[in-house]
Design brief:
The structure is a single chain. This protein is of the alpha+beta class. The protein is 45% helix and 18% strand. It contains 18 helices and 17 strands. Strands 4-3-2-7-8-9-1-10-16-15-14-11-12-13-17 form a 15-stranded mixed β-sheet, sandwiched between helices. α1 (2-38) runs antiparallel to α2 (42-54) and α11 (324-335) runs parallel beside α12 (351-362). InterPro entries: CLS_N, PLD-like_dom, PLipase_D/transphosphatidylase. The chain crosses the membrane at residues 15-33, 45-66. Its main location: membrane. Pfam families: PLDc_2, PLDc_N. This is PLDc N-terminal domain-containing protein.
């Protein structure tokens, strides 16, 4: 045995370059074939094959960690959808025609949503616009304090700060009353504060979980595949969703000089709550393997205040709902006739979506795009400035909003259709993150959202091509280099 070990050692010492070469060829070829066969985007496939070929040993390991999508098990999703359909015997039928509500041009968008969402467009919803933490957080805390049976809560960021503490205290009080609670926080988002919010959640024994922490048996989060969804459903009767995380910087009480960051959230009552819960239940079961029963967490009878509006949830993510938000935005821009308003803190659309926006502008549709003048993510701002000239060339008006940073994600079309929620207009939201948005057919709601966007425009500076050309070459080069990495920012 000793002689065999010595012989093997000598063999490895003498032929290690050949063994390493053979190993790298097999490993690289396997990874390259996998990338070529599984990537639907030719640019992504070419990029990964290039990384693997240029770095035959390191490249396959990078691809293994960041390039392979292993997040969803369709069996869980299909079973959950069957249960949803069995439970969701709505008292009202789905909306059959949106012509009277929004206009004839939206019929095709309605059909697109039916095929993309797998949720039906339902009337009977009451939707309210909540501006910033000063409006949203008190309403959410009030709902928690009024909870009698269940609270399901999901957030990308849930900071362990003064506002986070108020939510923890309210959840603890609810649990003491016998309310069933489930809290889901993204594993990357949980690291925005130290110590993490999981410490007080554990202290109060509030059932919680971190989305996507287990990677190859190691306790580390995926860098790319994040749950960016923001959801809260209380007693199956009151719900909240939109763009807001749980952070004290979005309240004037704790912001420096009372210059709180801005955002927009939405309260919901009505049938769309079952869809909100379905999204949460998918993510909770995927993360914890616990199946939450609809009959324990939802109701089918609502008496929401007027007005009643048609709405539905749009799930998207790197799973079987891949690019749902992308498809909906493409469809909306295609049916627009008069006006498109877009507000996004991170406006870096891909080539296809950029083409849809530019085509709308060239058809004569007025397109207004509002982005922050002072972004909270410097690298994202550099990437935005690297390609923003493309929409200006097409005739879009780009506005850089002054004042406090605005995190809102809002889109309206022709004053009748609104698309709001967690999705930014960038590659991460369109392809990598798990997102949840709300499609709303209502002129009153669209008008309220348009008013918010127009108020930003009133205090914004129009971005001109001359201003972009005047940027020094070194900065333009920096912007383009950062832009190359924009899908992962």
């Amino acid at each position: 045995m000793h002689d065999a070990i010595v012989a093997l050692r000598h063999l490895l010492i003498e032929y290690w370059p050949h063994i390493t070469l053979a190993f790298s060829i097999v490993l690289g070829a396997t990874a390259a074939v996998h990338a070529a066969m599984t990537k639907n985007d030719v640019r992504a496939a070419i990029s990964w094959v290039g990384v693997i070929i240029l770095s035959p040993i390191l490249g396959p390991f990078i691809y293994l960690i960041a390039g392979i999508n292993r997040v969803r098990h369709s069996q869980i999703s299909e079973q959950r959808d069957k249960t949803y359909k069995q439970f969701a015997s709505y008292p009202t039928p789905p909306v059959s025609d949106v012509k009277q509500i929004a206009g004839a041009q939206f019929r095709s968008l309605h059909i697109l949503g039916d095929n993309v969402s797998r949720f039906q467009l339902r009337g009977g919803n009451h939707v309210q616009v909540l501006q910033g933490g000063d409006e949203a957080y008190p309403r959410m805390l009030e709902a928690i304090d009024a909870a009698r049976s269940t609270i399901a809560m999901q957030s990308y960021i849930f900071d362990n700060d003064a506002i986070g503490a108020r939510f923890i205290d309210a959840l603890a009080r609810a649990q003491a009353r016998g309310v069933k609670i489930r809290v889901l926080v993204d594993s990357v988002g949980s690291k925005y504060s130290r110590p993490a919010i999981t410490r007080p959640l554990r202290k109060h024994k509030i059932p919680h979980a971190l989305f996507m922490t287990n990677n190859f048996g190691l306790r580390m989060p995926y860098a790319n595949l994040r749950s960016h969804r923001k959801v809260m459903i209380v007693d199956g009767l009151a719900g909240f969703t939109g763009g807001m995380n749980i952070r004290q910087g979005f309240t004037s009480e704790f912001a420096p000089d009372h210059q709180a960051a801005k955002d927009t959230h939405f309260s919901i009552e009505g049938p769309a709550l079952i869809q909100l819960f379905s999204s949460f239940a998918h993510d909770w079961e995927f993360t914890t393997k616990e199946a939450l029963k609809y009959e324990d967490w939802c109701v089918t009878g609502w008496c929401p205040p007027l007005p009643h509006v048609p709405a539905r949830c749009i799930r998207s993510g790197p799973d079987r709902f891949m690019s749902s938000n992308h498809h909906m935005l493409q469809g909306a821009f295609a049916v627009a006739r008069r006006h498109i308003r877009i507000q996004s803190p991170y406006f870096i659309p891909d080539l296809v979506l950029m083409g849809a926006i530019n085509t709308a502008a060239r058809r004569g549709v007025q397109v207004d795009i509002v982005v922050p003048k002072h972004n909270n993510l410097r690298l994202v701002n550099y990437a935005m400035m690297a390609q923003i000239d493309q929409v200006i060339h097409a005739g879009c008006r780009v506005w850089r909003a002054n004042g406090a940073f605005n995190h809102s994600k809002l889109v309206t079309v022709d004053g009748a259709w609104s698309y709001v929620g967690s999705s930014n207009m960038d590659s991460r939201s369109l392809r990598l993150n798990f997102e949840l948005d709300l499609e709303i057919y209502c002129r009153d709601t669209a008008k309220k959202i348009e008013t918010l966007i127009d108020e930003e425009i009133e205090h914004a500076d129009a971005l001109q091509l001359d201003e972009l050309r005047a940027i020094p070459f070194r900065k333009r080069l920096r912007n383009r280099v950062i832009w190359l990495a924009s899908p992962y920012l």
